[in-house]
Design brief:
- The chain has a six-stranded mixed β-sheet, with helices on both faces. Strands 2-1-4-5 form a four-stranded antiparallel β-sheet. A two-stranded antiparallel ribbon has the order 11-12.
- A hairpin with a 2-residue loop joins strand 4 (68-73) and strand 5.
- It has ten helices and twelve strands.
- Helices cover 30% and strands 24% of the residues.
- The chain has one domain: P-loop containing nucleotide triphosphate hydrolases (Rossmann fold, 3-Layer(aba) Sandwich).
- Bound molecules: adenosine-5'-diphosphate (ADP) and magnesium ion.
- Adenosine-5'-diphosphate binds at residues 13, 27, 29, 47, 49-55, 283.
- Magnesium ion (MG) binds next to helix 1.
């Protein structure tokens, strides 16, 4: 069953300036992204910093209002719902941030944070049931229940991320956006947090959007991957257990370049690495034609003039590139 359908989602941020504070242009953060996620599935979103991943995640769960497009959760179009109608859907869609510390109140205990979410959405009765529920949540994310009376600064980065996860799960969401949940953590801690998330995904039957700039992390954690560049999806990949390795599937020069940035572990693999040159162009002033044409090692004339559509290619999945057959 389809959990989430996103159609033609656009998010532009107006940019003001000058003496009169007029709109001078807009940041094209997300430019018409469509996808669907089945119940229980984890969709990865990958791309360099500034490609619109966080904006996409926040617009999907309506932390940001879409400029255009539709979001349908379990068959219900939530794009235009007012605050009251939106309330039950707020609970159903949660987000885990890269840095949970900035979203935790330094003067509130962990139990306080969890109670706030639980009471707001009336998940369990106050009192004994609530205490028990909080202890269970703490245990599920790998924290000792007696740590619930501590304050955020008393925890390590990895523990804080577990708290962020517990808070998101406390309200029994159907859909969770995890926005670079391990990117701020030490590599040794990343694996622990990812393992906890894998267990919880099965335990809670979660449907997720998992955002990362690291293709290796998404490859292991997700069933399917969207590769984003300058607000566009440029390639879709399969990454469930039966899919061939990403390195074999990648057809888009941008995805291949991202793989070059995470060289493959096999020393016998002597394919030349495409290394990404220069910065991502500004989404305030995007290039004409293909968004990747300014950095693409395989660029041809057509790329400079026309935007390639995201279409099914010979490799069996969709990519947006004029030179991919
Ligand atoms: N509130 C905002 N106002 C203006 N521009 C924004 C805002 N939020 C993000 N952007 C811009 O949108 C683009 C995409 O940002 P973001 O979604 O954070 O990318 P990512 O998560 O892939 O790093 C960036 O150029 C960023 O500067
Ligand atoms: Mg981001």
């Amino acid at each position: 069953m389809t959990m989430l359908e996103v159609e033609g989602l656009v998010k532009h941020f107006p940019v003001r300036g000058g003496i009169l504070n007029r709109i001078q242009g807009k940041v094209h953060a997300v430019n018409g992204v469509s996808f669907s996620i089945n119940e229980g599935e984890t969709l990865g979103v990958v791309g360099e910093s500034g490609c619109g991943k966080s904006t996409l995640g926040k617009t999907v769960i309506r932390l940001l209002e879409a400029t255009d497009g539709r979001v349908v959760l379990k068959g219900k179009d939530i794009t235009m719902l007012g605050p009251n109608e939106m309330m039950p859907f707020r609970r159903k869609m949660q987000i885990i941030f890269q840095d949970p510390y900035s979203s935790l109140n330094p003067r509130m205990t962990i139990a306080g944070h969890l109670k706030e979410a639980i009471r707001f959405h009336k998940i369990v009765e106050q009192g004994e049931a609530e205490d028990k529920y909080i202890d269970e949540l703490m245990t599920k994310v790998g924290l000792r229940p007696d740590a619930k009376n501590k304050y955020p600064h008393e925890f390590s980065g990895g523990q804080r991320q577990r708290i962020g996860i517990a808070r998101a799960l406390a309200v029994k969401p159907d859909f969770v956006v995890a926005d670079e949940p391990v990117s701020a953590l030490d590599v040794s801690i990343q694996a622990q947090v990812l393992n906890i998330m894998t267990d919880l995904k099965d335990d809670f039957g979660l449907t997720m959007m998992f955002i990362s700039h690291d293709l290796k992390v998404v490859e292991h954690f997700c069933d399917r991957i969207l590769v984003m560049y300058l607000g566009y999806v440029v390639e879709e990949l399969e990454s469930h257990a039966d899919a061939p390795p990403i390195a074999e599937q990648a057809q888009h020069p941008y995805t291949q370049a991202l793989l070059g940035a995470n060289p493959i572990d096999d020393p016998d693999d002597r394919r030349p690495l495409t290394v990404l040159q220069g910065d991502v162009p500004s989404p305030f002033n995007p290039p004409t034609g293909c968004p990747f044409q300014t950095r693409c090692p395989k660029v041809v004339d057509q790329c400079k003039r026309e935007m390639p559509p995201l279409e099914l290619k010979s490799g069996g999945h969709r990519a947006a590139c004029w030179i991919v057959e």
